Amino acid sequence: MNVHKTETWIGIIATGLIGIGLLWIAWREPTRLAFAQQAQLQTTLDEAMDLYAQNCSVCHGISGEGIGATPPLNNESLRQSDYSSLFKIIGRGLFGTAMPAWSKEDGGPLSDYQIGELVTLIQYGNWQETHDRVVNLGLAPSVPFTTQPNPTVLEQLSTLPQGDLLIQGVNLYAQQCVACHGTDGKGTTLAPALNDPLVQKKSIDELTRIILNGVPGTIMAGWQNTLNKDEIDALVTLITQWDKVPEGAIPAPSQPVPVTAESLALGKDLYAQNCSRCHGPEGQGTRRAPSLNVKGYLEKTNDAAIQQIITLGIPGTAMPSWGDRLSDAEIQAIVGFIRSWEPNAPEVALPARGGGGPWWKTNSSSGEIQGGGPPWMQKSNSSSPNSQYLPSGGSVQDRATNEQTKPTISDETQKGGPSLSQSKSTASQTTNIDWRAIILIAAISCFALILITIGISGLART
Ligand code: HEC
Ligand code: HEC
Ligand code: HEC
Asked: How far apart are CA 307 and CA 290, in angstroms?
């Protein structure tokens, strides 16, 4: 009798446990669904941030804050706008403004799917994360958009035949074009060089037409509503006669390279791999190359200048050009890392003897400096020395880079995005949680089944 009672109790407990298990599943389901939706949203936002970095940050700012006359996108009223009106604005552009049309239908580079992703970003995105993404991709626009031309150079120009027109061109360029087309027209990651024989070979009519109408499907907007005929003539004059304008006429906007924790870590790694051998592990210099980690040097050299030195190298010295080996994002990461030394930089550096070890062990079979550069440059055929010594090699190289990184690289995003994009871990996280739940439920069920079996076999015995 006693045995029978125990077994009844076991049966009740077992049924209860199964019930709890089922309830638990029911209770988890909405959470699991929410997780799945969250993961889906995160994937969309992830892709949208790449698209934003490549196509929009140049005008709307590094974290959607707006630049100059371009409005911000990171505000509450846009967040609340409805999907279809945002979709329309982005797809078709705003006629008569610098906001271009982005949909393939209207001659732009983006698919409807991608435009939908951008709408999602505006409605649900995290702008701090977007900021970090733009920086990690090396696509942070140079803000302020404008610079002051060098006054001495302007004075020199005034003595030339078409001096007034050139001066007007330089001034306009410094106000409207320098942020994309770069210091002295040398090009940036965003737009090709204009101080370039290939562009100068174009006819005056063609250049005028490009500036008036822009280049559809790229961030080169048409300027017909912003600039008048005389102003466009002045810019065309500048482009075709750039040889007469001395270097340094239009300095870079001297804006620090923005950094993120990720870019600093990358910069540190890249520095250790590529630079420490010559410049010392802490930038203190070696017998081969000067120190970089010195107060005086860092104070008087801005980030844009350091970036340019690293990209183009110093022709005629052992300092190689890195522009064809490292991406712009990587070079900016190194600049950010070098800049991070500044607060603690010594007044005077004490050069280390070699690179990462005693100098005679650090693969210096290259015969070092006199040999014209480090071993990889000598091995890798003749093109490297060329790019090192060709004074204008930089602009050609810049063009090549631009072809790949110009802001219409939406295709690349579809292939999975540039290498720096963060791993999409959220989805797999959800699966982890799922598995744990399943194992737990299975364990509870097994336990209950065992109890039931005991119960039944007990009943059978009585
Ligand atoms: C060449 C510069 C430029 C680029 C690149 C650009 N925009 Fe714009 N955008 C503008 C300007 C200028 C306006 C404001 C036009 C006006 O109403 O005067 C604008 C307006 C907008 C608006 C409406 C804002 C509001 O407050 O009504 C949205 C949304 C927008 N842009 C999204 C985007 C997205 C998304 C991208 C990237 C795919 C992008 N833009 C790229 C210049 C640009
Ligand atoms: C928002 C960035 C941006 C601004 C600002 C900008 N451009 Fe451009 N520009 C571009 C891009 C990108 C291209 C390349 C388009 C392409 O892929 O063909 C380009 C191309 C050009 C070209 C054709 C170059 C060639 O290789 O054929 C000319 C000329 C030009 N821009 C002039 C100007 C002038 C003048 C200004 C200032 C009034 C200006 N741009 C402002 C982004 C910009
Ligand atoms: C093969 C040795 C070598 C390597 C590797 C090297 N550099 Fe240099 N670097 C030099 C030399 C030599 C100079 C000085 C050139 C001169 O005489 O003006 C220099 C100069 C510089 C300058 C300018 C310093 C100044 O005082 O004006 C910077 C900035 C710089 N290097 C950064 C880097 C970075 C960043 C890397 C790694 C990506 C790197 N270098 C890798 C040899 C090297």
From this structure: 17
